Amino acid sequence: MKAAYLKAPRQFEVRDVELREIHEDEVLVDVRACGYCGHDNILASYHAKEWEPFGHEFSGVVIRVGSRVRGLEVGDKVCIETNMFDPLSDCARNGRPDLDTAPLGPSFMNLDAGHRGGMGFAEQVIVPGDLCVKFDGISFEEACMIEPLGVAYDIVMTADVRLNDDVLVFGCGPIGLMAMKLAKASGARKIYAAQHSGSKARCDLALQYGADEVILTDKQPIEDYPFEKGGVDRVLMTVPPKYMGEALAVMKAGGILSFAGISYDEPAVTFDSNKVHLDKLQIRGSNAIPALYFPMCIDMVKAGMVELKPLISHRMHLETLPEDLARYYAERDRAVKAVMVRE
Bridge partners of 340? Predict the structure, then answer.
């Protein structure tokens, strides 16, 4: 079968590979859609020194089932959790499986990648059965974006967005855009979106996804923006951590900043600690490990609470993936979400 591999800096190739036999607790999934994630970008830019398979946002059809897998049959449509909490961990037994951030349960990301052939950007993938979430009523394209929708939901939930809150969403990528919809549904009074002007498509989508105003960060400093209430109650931050100081500077007393950005080369941040102290601000980390909320997210998409298809700016194909990704990077002004589709 064919599977895509990456290597820094942003090198991609499609290989012919062989799949091993599935284990008794695994299933074989025929991939129908796979999203290209911002973390794939980071991995390709900084981390992948050798050729590695990639792609963790995917959906497909079960075509083989291990003998010990429960609740799945050949023909089931599934989207894939990246990892799962250990149900026997102290966190899970204390009612906080979300805090099991180093799960010993099934993990797609750590599944002997060198011996299974590939990850989501492939024709077929071996997956632990426990990571498969069945769905119906939505497309494969939508189903492959349930994983990042879960990330967006975690950001909003971590920030505890409430009725009448003014919210700043820093970063208008797919997760930031989805978070706007969820923040509005959670009762936000006004939503400000912060984005570089170089991505017109993302700025336009921000207004469609709930933003009342878009701040072009390369044209006006966040600190100088005339917020209606003098600042914001909540910040949903999906950009690198180096921007945290700017975000904290515009927060009102008692505000909460929920942070889901990541950086391998600039993880340290600088901010005014007196502002945090005197205004009783909170900085809360949002980390979608373990992956949670898939059934809820599927329900929200089916109910029309969050539209996913408008986020897809580029549709790709496995056979031409290197060329398709090069086009995605070249068209940054219109690039939002790239999704590989297979019939």
Answer: 34, 316
**316 strand-pairing partners:** 340
Q: Which residues contact 94 (CB under 8 A, 6 or more apart)?
A: none
Which pTM value belongs to this model? 0.94
pLDDT tens digits, 100-138: 887 655 566 655 544 456 799 999 999 999 999 999 999
Single-letter amino acid code for the residue at 118: G
Tens digits of per-residue pLDDT, 214-272?
A: 999 999 999 999 999 999 999 999 999 999 999 999 999 999 999 998 877 788 999 99
Separation between Cα atoms, residue 317 and residue 308, nearest integer Å: 19
Which residues, 6 or more positions from 102, have their beta carbon under 8 angstroms from its beta carbon?
A: none
**Domains of the chain (ranges, CATH numbers):** 2-145+308-341 (3.90.180.10), 152-285 (3.40.50.720)
Closest to 150 measured CA to CA, from 298, 36, 340: 298
Classify burial at 308, counting beta carbons within 10 Å of its beta carbon; exposed 0-12, middle 13-18, buried 19 or more.
buried
Q: Are 117 and 19 in contact (CB under 8 A)?
A: yes
Please state, in angstroms and rounded to a whole number, the distance separating the CA atoms of residues 28 and 31.
9
The residue count of the chain comes to 343
Where do we find the tokens 């901010």?
A: 271
Segments of the chain assigned E as strands: 2-7, 11-16, 26-36, 52-53, 57-65, 77-80, 124-128, 132-134, 166-170, 190-195, 213-216, 232-237, 251-259, 282-285, 312-316, 337-341
